[in-house]
Amino acid sequence: MSRLSTAWLLPPAVLAASTSGYATEYLTVEQAQQALFPGTALTAVPVRLTAEQRQAIAQSSGVRVRASELRAWRTGAGGWFIVDEVLGKHEFITFALGLDLRGAVVGLEILSYRETYGGEVRNGKWRGQFPGKTAANALKLDGDIKNISGATLSCRHITDGVKRLLTTYELVLKTFR
Amino acid sequence: MSSCSKPSAELRRCRPLLGTLVEVRATAPTSAQAERALHAAFAAVARVQELMSFHDPASDLSRLNRAAARRAVRVHAWTHLVLRRAQKLHAATGGLFDIASAPALIRGGWLPRAGVPLPRGAATAADILLLSGNRLRFRRPLLVDLGGIAKGFAVDQAVAALCGAGATAGTVNAGGDLRVFGSLPEAVHVRLPESPGSLVPLVAVRDAAIATSAHYFAQRRVNGAVRSPIFHPLSRQLAGETRSVTVQAAECWLADALCKVVWLAGAAALPLLHAHGARAWVFDAGAGPSRPKEVNHAA
Question: Where are the beta strands (DSSP E) in B108-215?
């Protein structure tokens, strides 16, 4: 059964409803580990930042440090895999950063993306007219939103998050026993 | 899943590139092939970023902005192609689509100072001389910004990379400028300009690109008034409307660029849309909830 064909069963009103939440999972932590360090065994290394270290990282990077616990793993070769999250005004993004033994970025993967707006669903009269106007027959459920045009969010928060983690490497992880 | 069930794998990844989040989906006969296709697609986007970023002093674009008013500068074939397309569109729109609008965006705070004096006067994209051997020269001091076309071009290159790597279907979405290919239609949602958390289905497309210009996340106060980073090169004003324009076209660079044209020209852009086999929708946030209006002769 095609996913598209199920849409035919739904009344037009449902098809045309708007939604105010959106979330996508891209990779699990394990999948991201394999993407950044293929075929490499990683060992979880709990890293707890002291209040002093957090302050030093914030000062040096110019980015606020919210968490004192670092979700970090190490490769046998001395590289690091860190899972972190950034909070924007409306978005909540989990990402993984891979660093080699010298602290250079191996890669970055977004694990999940979630938008957090309030209940802003509005009911425009036009929605009743919508299906006839465009190829609404082929539209999928709102729960299956895959393509958003106009999601022009900046990735500044991620850039800040990476800056904070690179500073964390310099000040803490580089000399980690 | 498809009713004719050939074995296939779909992978979906997202990375920060082009100053936004770029999402790529790839379907291929095996997951290893899908993985390779994703890799090729992200590499293509990263390449476009290296070449056409206004923010990166080492990009082709920055080299042009620094030197092309004084001497011919050789650039990558992709950069040359984008500038050629932009100049053609500048001519076809009577100057409305103008990649030489960077000074207005710098003054408004959307773009950083480029390290060169802001050109005074009315130099336009027509002052770019396209020379052989992927070289370019500016007739007058000029600051080019490819923000209205390069993101779409990156999406096209990423789609080409996906296809070249054997993907049978896929989507590339660079911060809202997207292109889909494959056998099934894909629904595309847009945000309501006055309430960007609300997503509404707009259209379903197959093998097409959709781009949206909307600035709910980018509006700024310029001289006391809320403005969007869309500059009218003829009236020399920044746009002030809370508006969203969506364009569907065969290729994403074109959808991306036509958004700006439709924003500024409205229904007057119809002949151009028709000439390119494109369609457009305008959402204006007014008194009540906005509704999508397709640009047509009735508008």
Answer: 128-131, 135-138, 169-174, 177-181, 186-192, 195-205, 208-214
Closest CB to B21: pick one of A35, A110, A122: A110
For residues B131 and B191, membership in a common domain is answered with no
Domain that holds residue A76: 19-119+150-175
CATH code of residue B105: 1.10.3980
> What is the C-alpha separation between B27 and B32, in angstroms, rounded?
11
Distance CA A173, CA A30 (A): 21
Give A90's contacts in chain B (Cβ within 8 Å): 196-197
Tell me the chain B residues in contact with residue A20 when contact means C-beta distances shorter than 8 Å: 195, 197-199
C-alpha A144/C-alpha A156 separation (Å) is 27
Task: Look up residue B104 and give its two tokens.
Answer: 């207005």
- Residue B250 tokens read as 């065969």
Predicted TM-score (pTM) of this structure: 0.86
pLDDT tens digit string along B260-293?
999 999 899 999 999 999 999 998 876 455 567 8
pLDDT digits (tens, 9 = 90+) for B221-233: 777 777 777 777 7
Cα–Cα distance between B263 and B275 in angstroms, integer?
18
